[in-house]
Every structure is written in C-alpha cells, then in structure tokens.
Specification:
It comes from Streptomyces olivochromogenes. It is built from 11 helices and 12 strands. By secondary structure, it is of the alpha/beta class.
C-alpha cells in the first residue's frame, strides 16, 4: 500500500488527502493544529514542519511528500524560505517524491494566456519568494513538481472571492472587492486543484516542471451574478476598492498592505492556459456552476 505525507490542513490539503485515501492509500497529514478530514486511512499529526528532524521522521517511508502549507501572508519573504528549506531537506533525507502546491505570483503581471513555461518575472517580494521556493527545489536534484493554482473558489476555499464576495452575495450585502469587476480573471476550484496534485504525483512525466491547475475564466462580477442566481439571492451590488481604501485598511491589519503587489494591471485580463494539464495529466475544469452549487 502506498503512503503519503501532506503538510497543511486547508481545503486543498484535505481534498487531496481524501482523494488518496479513497483510492486505498495511506495519508499522514501534518499541521500545527493536527486538523484534517476523518477517514480510516488518514492519520492527523500535530507538528511544526519547520522542525526538520521531526518532519523527516514523519516522512520516512512515504512515497510522496505533498505541501500545501504557507506562512502568514505578510510574512512570506521571511518565513517561506525557512519552511521550504525544511521540506526540501526532509525530501532529500527520505527520498520521497515532492509535490508542491504553488500559485501564480511568480509570473508577475504577465500578458496571457499564461503557460507554465512563462518566465518567473515577478519583482515584488511575494512573487520573488514564490519563484525562489520553486527554483531552489527544481535545482536541488530531488524528484519534484509544482502545481500552480489561480485564485481559489469553491467549498472550503480561502481567497479574496470566498472572503470578500461569496458571503456578501449570499446575504444580499454590498460587495467591496480589491479587483476590477468586469475584467476576465482565472479561478481554480479546490477540487480540481486537488485532483491535479494527485494526478501529478502519479505521472512520471509530471516531475521536473510545473503545471497549472484547471481554471474557469470570467470576471468577478460574472462569478458573483452566477452565485446569486443559483442561490436565489438578490442581484449583487458591487464596488471596486481603491488603492486608497487598501492603504487605509493596512493601518488596521497587515494583510491589506500585501494586496497592492498582487493586483493586476488596470484593464488587464489574467488568463491561465492549463491545456497541458488536461492533455497529459487528464484533469479538466469542473463547470463553474457546479463548483458554486457546492458552495451553496
């Protein structure tokens, strides 16, 4: 029986664990809180992944080490290299294959459709940190691949859409969002991202390069309107947050200051090409309405 370690306990980690367990494979989930879904083949362990010796001990004998974890958003430049260094050391010591969940920040404000071989040209601290994490892993000699997801949506997602749009739409409240309302933007469903992580881990062609999780591309207003229609909620009332709004909010919570770096260019669609994922890994995008129905 195959066995795997997943570092993280969020929606993508939990869905990945369940997919593996439902296929009869053992999973050990590691997080600081010991969280995760209940399943006979899922073992939940409380541990700090930056403790390399402990992580190595927990990974010993596993076929694959998946990581979906990330430090607090505003501390990525300081803490992500520490976390990724520990993960990489554990993989080197144990010989496990390494599957990373990444995002699209490393590309910077690229003109799309963006493919996985686009240059990692970000200049901001979070984008450069993401690029560094992948580049160091790819150059390390370990068996590694990265699945890069767009902004998450779907049941359990933790994203701008889920936090700032979804609840407000369902409750009929005004939506304020730091994103242009009518510019196309790619979104990755949690379930599709998990299926891509599992498919990449099982395909020898996947290693040594990055892949894009499947996406649906539509504007945030279109996505909000679809959600409202499916839920029987009022037509969404939406306004775009300004740079000044974000600057003022940053005085109350450091998260808001970080949003400036990841905003797309005005009027600039952010579109992802995942055709290779569909062709080689066999994972397609779930229709957006189906993903939103799961949310409801």
């Amino acid at each position: 029986m195959k066995s795997h370690v997943i570092v993280g306990r969020g929606a993508a980690a939990s869905k990945t664990a369940l997919l593996l367990a439902e296929d009869g494979e053992r999973v050990r989930m590691i997080s600081r809180t010991g969280g995760g879904p209940d399943h006979p083949l899922i073992d939940k362990v409380t541990a700090d992944a930056t403790d390399t010796d402990r992580l190595t001990e927990l990974t010993e004998g596993a076929d694959t080490l998946f990581t979906t974890a990330a430090p607090p958003y505003h501390l990525w430049p300081e803490q992500f290299p520490i976390l990724s260094g520990s993960l990489l050391s554990a993989v080197k010591r144990t010989g496990a294959a390494y599957v990373m969940l990444g995002n699209l920040y490393a590309y910077g404000p690229a003109s799309g459709p963006i493919t996985p071989d686009f240059p990692l040209a970000a200049t901001g601290p979070k984008g450069r940190t993401r690029a560094r994490v992948w580049e160091e892993a790819a150059a390390s000699g370990v068996k590694v691949t990265e699945v890069r997801a767009a902004q998450f949506y779907g049941a359990g997602a933790f994203s701008v859409f889920s936090l700032m749009v979804q609840r407000q739409v369902l409750e009929g409240k005004l939506v304020l969002v730091p994103q242009e309302l009518d510019v196309p933007h790619s979104y990755s469903a949690i379930g599709d991202t998990a299926r891509t992580l599992v498919a990449a881990s099982r395909n020898e062609q996947a290693y040594g390069r990055a892949w894009h999780a499947p996406t649906s591309t539509l504007s945030v207003r279109e996505l909000a309107v679809r959600l409202a229609e499916l839920a029987g909620a009022p037509e969404p009332r939406m306004e775009e947050m300004t740079e000044r709004d974000l600057t003022l909010l940053a005085f109350t919570e450091p998260f808001w200051a970080e949003m400036h770096e990841v905003l797309t260019k005005p009027g600039h669609p952010f579109v992802i090409d995942y055709s290779e994922t569909e062709k080689i890994l066999g994972v397609s995008a779930t229709p957006a309405n189906d993903v939103l129905r799961e949310v409801i």
